[in-house]
Amino acid sequence: MRNLLLAAVVLAVVAASASAGVSGKYVEARTCDVWTGPCFANAETSMGGKNAVIGWMIDEGSFDGVKLDGLGVVAVISAPDTLGIKQSGKGKAVLIVDSKASKKQKDALVKLARKQGGDLVGEVLAVTTEKVEIEICECKEGGCARLSAGKATVETRCLSAKHDKVCGNESAYYTPLTEGVKAKPAMATEHSYQGKEVGARWSDANRRGAYVGTFELRSVFFSEGDE
């Protein structure tokens, strides 16, 4: 009987661990087109597209054993190469964590961003605390969003297959920068970062360089080996 009870407890713990994780809203914008034709993408390669703003707003869930409902984190990225192609090295990043978060929650948000960003946030130059707002608005194609986090701002609208085409062969040429994302390409009507920590400032409006959608990360505890 004791063995049966022990097995039941183990199964319950495993089941709870398997269902643990975080999910919520996802917004990214980069300084190159993601919805584009191969000719335009190839023309930008190595010339630009090395900066991005990525935001996660947790609707519900826990990460590293810490509840994060209603909190957001943003990564401001400077990569060695055009985002979307194989990188020659690790990226540099500033992480902006939600001012509503407690110390434990801020630590967990940093770990979440590092886990999701991978090598793109390989060198974290600074962690700042700001009010983080990430909203996905109701619209026909699901491409309307707003991100505000200190010196980082992103606003998007839906892409028009009729009015936003340039070469007539556009598609989602690049995939989102992080895993576990379900998102649609969008027009970044505003995409800017006015800080100086990553060695670059930009204001890159009206570019087909955004993704808007949701993310889901099934993970329980963050280990040092994941950094």
What does this protein structure show overall?
The protein has 227 residues and is an alpha+beta fold. It is built from three helices and 14 strands. It has one domain. The strands form two sheets. Strands 1, 3, 4, 5, 6, 7, 8, 9, 10, 12, 13 and 14 form a twelve-stranded mixed beta sheet that branches. It has a two-stranded antiparallel ribbon with strand order 2-11. It starts with a helix and ends in a 10-residue tail after the last strand. The C terminus is likely disordered.
What's the arrangement of secondary structure elements?
Elements (H helix, E strand, L loop, with lengths): L1 H18 L2 E9 L4 E2 L1 H7 L6 E13 L2 E2 L4 E7 L13 E7 L4 H15 L5 E8 L1 E5 L8 E5 L2 E6 L13 E2 L8 E13 L8 E2 L3 E11 L10
Parallel strand pairs: 6-7
Antiparallel strand pairs: 1-3, 1-14, 2-11, 3-4, 3-5, 5-6, 8-9, 9-10, 10-12, 12-13, 12-14
Strand content: 35-45%
- The radius of gyration over CA amounts to 19 Å
Count of separate DSSP helical elements: 3
Oligomeric state of the chains present here:
single chain
Low-confidence stretches: 4-19, 220-225
**Count of separate structural domains:** 1
- Largest beta-sheet details: 12 strands, mixed
Strand tally is: 14
Shape: globular
Percentage of residues in helical conformation: 10-25%
- Termini, distance in Å? 42 Å
SSE series: HEEHEEEEHEEEEEEEE
Q: Which structural category fits the helices and strands? A: alpha+beta
* Mean pLDDT across every amino acid position: 88
